Inverse folding.
């Protein structure tokens, strides 16, 4: 393909309208706005007013068969991402799905398996935080072994404060049948992705989650999860939507150093001159006494670096779309392959299942057991169809 990738926006809501504006304004190299689809007449009218001359459709099948687009972005409810993405790939189009890739692993697995049969088409996911230069640099440091083997990681991300009115504005929001969960599927997917992208995928999880703890909702508004990576390495993930002050602090402890990220803006990287255990073994009984007197000068075995980057709001989303188009046009490596969407959904599902059952759950949990537990909660709501 040469020239520009014509992109169709499926779902002209808060996020879809932003992407449409970026594309229509020519802000994304190699991509243009080809069409907009939304079942809501009011949203279609808004799109028509904002983007004169752009093809409008009432449903996604009409876009897929129109010939007006080369690719689509799915900015629709979470449950629909796999269905629409599969249909688009089947129609010969490229697909960029919004996060999360879906609600439960069985449907995301179906999407990934189908996408694997279409290697000629590009399949990506909107993990825009992977474009953040701070996190990209941290991944480089970890991958290069500069802080040694990871022994512990923990992320407190509670900067998601939401008032009750946020949940009351839509009947589907913060429901099991409409949204598929709370903070784990709405606010925190980016951190669940980054955590695993940088630190690796855990083997199991034990979680405590509070459902409707500080808000009048059915789903989780607070989570504390402990994960096991094997070989003694552990991690902790804490998130909530009722912390008005909020904290965003990510720590990675390795054998040869430590990384501390504050506010997703500044990272303090401390590298040790040698493995921590070697340092421990070098400290004799006499030196222990010096240590307690502050005379050992262990700081001489440490070297600290502070890393900061400027990152303008909105530029990260635009960069994912630019990369998506560049992969289609020129084969540029994808920042976030669509298949990676499974990792965050799988961990969120495992956290839910552990909290529901009150026990540790492996990451290769029984998908039918998860779906049965999810459907039991959908039935209790009595508002939405069960899932299969």
């Amino acid at each position: 393909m040469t020239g520009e990738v014509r992109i169709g926006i499926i779902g002209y809501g808060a996020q879809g309208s932003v992407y449409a504006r970026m594309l229509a304004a020519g802000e994304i190299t190699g991509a243009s706005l080809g069409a907009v689809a939304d079942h809501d007449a009011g949203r279609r009218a808004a799109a028509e007013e904002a983007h004169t001359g752009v093809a409008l459709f009432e449903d996604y099948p009409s876009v897929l068969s129109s010939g007006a687009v080369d690719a689509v972005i799915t900015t629709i409810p979470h449950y629909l991402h796999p269905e629409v993405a599969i249909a688009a790939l089947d129609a010969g189009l490229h697909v960029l799905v919004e996060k999360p890739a879906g609600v439960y692993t069985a449907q995301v697995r179906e999407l990934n398996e189908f996408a694997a049969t279409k290697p000629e088409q590009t399949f990506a996911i909107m993990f825009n935080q992977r474009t953040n230069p701070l996190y990209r640099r941290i991944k480089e440091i970890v991958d290069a072994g500069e802080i040694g083997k990871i022994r512990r990681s923990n992320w407190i991300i509670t900067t998601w404060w939401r008032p009750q009115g946020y949940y009351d504005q839509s009947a589907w929001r913060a429901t099991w049948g409409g949204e598929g969960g709370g903070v784990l599927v709405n606010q925190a997917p980016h951190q669940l992705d980054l955590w695993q992208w940088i630190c690796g995928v855990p083997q199991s999880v034990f979680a405590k989650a509070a459902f409707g703890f500080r808000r009048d909702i059915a789903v989780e508004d607070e989570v504390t999860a402990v994960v096991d990576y094997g070989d003694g390495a552990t991690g902790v993930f804490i998130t909530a939507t009722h912390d008005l002050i909020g904290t965003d602090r990510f720590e990675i402890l390795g054998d040869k150093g430590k990384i501390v990220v504050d506010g997703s803006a500044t990272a303090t990287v401390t590298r040790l001159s040698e493995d921590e255990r070697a340092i421990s073994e070098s400290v004799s009984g006499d030196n222990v006494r010096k240590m307690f007197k502050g005379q050992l000068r262990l700081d001489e075995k440490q070297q600290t670096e502070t890393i900061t980057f400027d990152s303008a709001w909105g530029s990260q989303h635009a960069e994912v779309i630019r990369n998506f188009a560049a992969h289609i046009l020129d084969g540029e490596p994808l920042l976030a392959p669509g298949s990676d969407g499974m990792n965050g959904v799988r961990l969120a599902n495992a956290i839910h299942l552990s909290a529901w059952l009150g026990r540790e759950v492996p990451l290769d949990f029984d998908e039918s057991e998860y779906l049965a537990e999810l459907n039991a909660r959908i039935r209790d709501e009595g508002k939405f169809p069960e899932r299969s």
